[in-house]
Amino acid sequence: MLGASVLLIALPLAGAIVLLVGGRLLDRVGHLIGCATVLASFVLGVLIFIRLIGEPSGADQVHTVQVYTWMQSAGLNIDFGLLVDPLSITFVLLITGVGSLIHIYSIGYMAHDADRRKFFAYLNLFVAAMLLLVLGSSFVTLYAGWEGVGLASYLLIGFWSDRPSAATAAKKAFIMNRVGDVGLALAIFLMFKELGTVSYDGVFSQIDRLAEQSPGTVTVIALLLLLGACGKSGQVPLQAWLPDAMEGPTPVSALIHAATMVTAGVYLIARSSPIYDVTADGSLVVAIIGTVTLLVGCIGGCAKDDIKKVLAYSTVSQIGYMFLAVGLGAGVYALGILLLLCHGFFKAGLFLGAGSVMHAMNDDVDMRRYGGLARRLPITFGTMACGYLAIIGFPLFDGFYAKDPIIEAAFAAEGVTGWLLGSAALIGAGITAFYMTRLMIMTFFGEPRWKQLKSTDGREYHPHEAPPVMTIPMIILAVGSVGAGAFFAINDRLANWLAPSVGPYEEPHPPFPAIVVTIATLAVVAVGVFIAYWFIGRRPVPVTAPMPVPAIVTLARADVGGNAINETLFARPGIWLSRASVYADAKGVDGLVNGSAAALGGLSGRWRHWQNGYVRSYALSMFAGTLVVVLMLLLVRSA
To answer: Sorting pLDDT into bands at 50, 70 and 90, what band is 566?
Structure first.
C-alpha cells in the first residue's frame, strides 16, 4: 500500500520534471510521456481500489501510511503521511481517470501549439499536486497539495501569457485563491494551538472535547476552513475568478475548473466532516453559501454569449449544490460526493465539447456566431446533448440521480430553513435548464449564422468534426453522463462505500413524499426548457447584443455584481490603503530619518568651521569654555 500510494503521486510529478528539464529534445514525445504517467497512476488507483473493495467494510478500509518525518520542532510533529480510504481513492480515480481522458484530448487540441510539451508538464504538475491534496494524512500535507494546485492553476490559466486577458485572469485567480488560503492556514494554526496536532486522526479524535469546552473555537475553525474552500471552489464571495479563468486552453477548463480543482473545497468540507458534525452553525453557513452561490451561478450563466463562460457559471452553480449537500450535516455528505463524481463526467464532457466547437469555428467562443452545427458536428452534438440532459436532471441521466436527492435533502432540513434552502435549489434547477437549453439552441440549431460572417469579419468558417483523439474522450465522458449516476446511486452504492470516511448515509425525509420533489423538479426543469425555446428557439438570434437590455440581463452580464462588489469593498480600499501607507512611509518615516540626518549634517557643517588650524582660534575657544565653566560655578555657589 505504501509503495503504490507514493508512486501514484510520484509518476505525474516525475513526468512534469522530465518534460520541463528535458527541453526541446522531448518536443516530439512530450505529450506521450505526459499521458503515460497519468494513465499509469490511474491503473495504480484501480488496483488500490480493488484491494479496498476486498477488505471488510469499516475501519479496515482506512489505511494511514507514514513516508517520513517532515517537520519536528518543540511540540510540532508533522509526518509526511498518506491516507488511503474510500473518500481519497474515489477522488484518485476521478482525478486520474478523467484527467487521462483530458490529457489524450489535449494531444489533438494542442497539436499545433509550439509549447505543447510545457503544457503537458503543467498538466502533470497539476495532477500530482491534486493527488497529494486528496491523499495527505494531515491538514499540512493537504495544504502542500493545495498550494501546488494553486501554482499549477496559475500556470495553466495564463499559459497563453502573450494575451493580456489570459495574464490578467491568471493573476486574478492566483490572488483570490490566496485570500482563501489565508483562511485555511489560520484554521491549521488554530488547530495546533488548541489541539496540539494537525493530523486528521489527532484533530478528529479531540474535536468532541474541544466542542464541549469551547464551541465557539470549533465554529471559527469551521468557518476558516470554509473560507479556504470558497477560494478554491469559486464560491461566494470568492467566485469572480472562475469565469475569467476560461482564458486558458479549453482542456484546462475541463480538468481544473470542472472535474478536479474546483471540487477540492467540497473534498475539504467532506474530509473535515467530524468538525462540522459538532458545529451546527458552521454547517448552516456552508449550506447558505452553497445556496447563494448556486443562484448566483445560474443567473450569471443566463446572459453570457461566450460558450465557455456559460459553462463556467454552470460550474459555479453546480459546486454550489455540492456545498449545499455537504452543509446539510451528518448523514448526507455522500450526496455532495455523488454529484461531484457525476459532475466530473458531464461537465468535463461539456467543456471538451465546447473545445470541439471552437476547434471547428476558428477558436471563436461567441455563440451568436454559431447555429446549425448539429449536422456539421454530429459526434460533438451527441456528446454535448448527453451532458446537457445530465446537468438539467433529465430522467435516467446523471443529474436525475445526483441533484434531485440534494433538493430533497434541502427540504428535509428543519423548519423554515428547509423550505428556503429547498426552494432556492428547486429554482436553480429551472434556471439551469433555461441557460443550458439556450446554449444548445444557439450552438447547434437555427440558421447557420457563421455563413454570413465573412462579409463582416473577413474570416472563412468551415465547421468540421474534431479528430478521433479528441472525440473518443468525449464519447467516454458522454457514456459516464448517461450511466454513472444510476450506477453510483442505486442501492446507495456510493453512500455505503463512503461510510468509513464520512459516516453512514441517512436517507432524508422531507415534509412530503419524495416523489413530490421529483415531480416538482421535473416540472420546473420543463418550464425552464420551454421558456428558453419560446424566447430563443423561435426567434432569430441577433449576432450583436440588442440595446437597451433589461436590468436583470445587465446584472447577469456584469457577473452578478461579483467584480463590482470585490472592487468596491476590497480592491479600491486596498489601493487607497496602499497609497496612504506609501505616503506615510515617504513623508513620515523617511521624513523623520532623512530630516534627522540632514539636521546632524547641517550641525556638523557648522562645527567644521571651528577646525581652521589657527592657534588663536583654539585659544579663544579654550578661554570661552573656561569662562562658561567659571560662570556656572559662580551661579551654583550663589544659589
So the answer is: confident
